[in-house]
Amino acid sequence: MPFRLLISLGLVCVFLPLHHGAPGPDGTAPDPAHYRERVKAMFYHAYDSYLENAFPYDELRPLTCDGHDTWGSFSLTLIDALDTLLILGNTSEFQRVVEVLQDNVDFDIDVNASVFETNIRVVGGLLSAHLLSKKAGVEVEAGWPCSGPLLRMAEEAARKLLPAFQTPTGMPYGTVNLLHGVNPGETPVTCTAGIGTFIVEFATLSSLTGDPVFEDVARVALMRLWESRSDIGLVGNHIDVLTGKWVAQDAGIGAGVDSYFEYLVKGAILLQDKKLMAMFLEYNKAIRNYTHFDDWYLWVQMYKGTVSMPVFQSLEAYWPGLQSLIGDIDNAMRTFLNYYTVWKQFGGLPEFYNIPQGYTVEKREGYPLRPELIESAMYLYRATGDPTLLELGRDAVESIEKISKVECGFATIKDLRDHKLDNRMESFFLAETVKYLYLLFHPNNFIHNNGSTFDSVMTPHGECILGAGGYIFNTEAHPIDPAALHCCRRLKEEQWEVEDLMREFYSLKESRSRARRKTMRSGPWEPPAEPGTLSSPENHDQPRGKHPAKQRTPLLSCPSQPFTSKLALLGQVFLDSS
């Protein structure tokens, strides 16, 4: 049945044909098993098209059936899709791709890469796949999960990003050259999310490797951003990382800011960090006081709170899911239903939607198959079981298949008004959109484990419990097992304890040595000390790392990490406001 468009009062309504498994006249909810299979078929149509037409390029161009590099020439779609393969139950392909990535991906290349995108897609994807490897049947090496080829790749990629953090403020540049570091002419203006979205990946990396440098740079950047908020508690959209001055002063929850708030909450949960949660709750008060109107969230001036843009952005649709994580279910559902009405109006979420006019914004009419509304539906369905959320999942499957599906995958929708397509399939379609849809319709997936089952793994540091649930998704939907952060901790803490004892030992010896020298100058001769006491204490007083003897930071209290990116993928919010 072809689409029927009803144009009335300036609104476009999309009526999609109902398939078996969709609600009937009696209002029954969509059949989850039916839509699970539909979603799985969507994944393999896109994934197989990428392998056949685009690999080893980053992403598929579905209209011309070829590929192109977009974020750094990493075979990005393969990395982004890896954990989705396991969630769909395909362990054999997971194992094959792990081998392919080890053989083909090289980060020692002369490429300018987005710090944010490389972190969330590459570092996040590799860390997630590393932690899921044993579950996927990969033969892991001794010492896993504290060692392994994917972990080493993730660490290598993250180290390529560290030069970006070498600024006077500690807030990172948005782009770094993977071979040469930050280019001399690189712009110092970075979006807020580009400074606040590293904690999940970098904290995990520091915990698994024992190297605190990733936590350290991330916490510094996050705190500088927190200290830069306005007197009314809001942050702007872009800041100069050299001076700390705000360049774009529009405050909201959408593009350029979004995952900063997301990572305060997820970082707090992952690390059990009360300070991160307290920071978010303070922001949440200001957001509700100044940007919240009739269950919509507008953009306001960060110092005055006056409305600057009365628009809804598709990237804001993550917010109800985030609200559900802090238990604010009622507000989350009301906002979700507002966003769902926009989906019903167009068969997708336009990048910008003018709330007073009830229509799209010029040059922002597209829908690149983003996951955020589906992500919120998944979280809220886990919290409420409301069948309305399954209906959103059904509508998403029907819309994407009918509007976006082409011979070689699924194409970005360039304009939701006339369904024109663009020649791109973002890697997040396989990493996030399909994954969240599948998990929405698969309540018994291992990702949803409630702790009733788990795996016990023996590591060089002791017994480690994995797979008990509570997975934390990074902003690219790569799940991190929070229990894994404790697996590699004991040995490091014991090392610090030994270092403390050694410092105390040599400090005591130094005191005794001074006492002996004083006695030799003014008192009777004493017999020589026992063998070993003449060793110079200077070589032992200095700690091997930055871990003070009395106030050391546990390896797992990992730092909030900045999310550095220009607005490229974030919607290019302010690029046209010249």
UniProtKB/TrEMBL annotation:
Keywords: Endoplasmic reticulum, Glycoprotein, Glycosidase, Hydrolase, Signal, Unfolded protein response
Keyword Signal part of the UniProt annotation: yes
Cellular compartment(s): Endoplasmic reticulum
Its EC number(s): 3.2.1.-
Record region (Disordered): 516-562
One Pfam assignment: Glyco_hydro_47
Residues of the signal peptide: 1-21
InterPro entries, A to Z: 6hp_glycosidase-like_sf, EDEM1/2/3, Glyco_hydro_47, Seven-hairpin_glycosidases
Protein family per UniProt: Belongs to the glycosyl hydrolase 47 family.
PANTHER family documented for this protein: ER DEGRADATION-ENHANCING ALPHA-MANNOSIDASE-LIKE PROTEIN 2
The protein's name: alpha-1,2-Mannosidase
Organism: Microtus ochrogaster
The encoding gene: LOC101998256
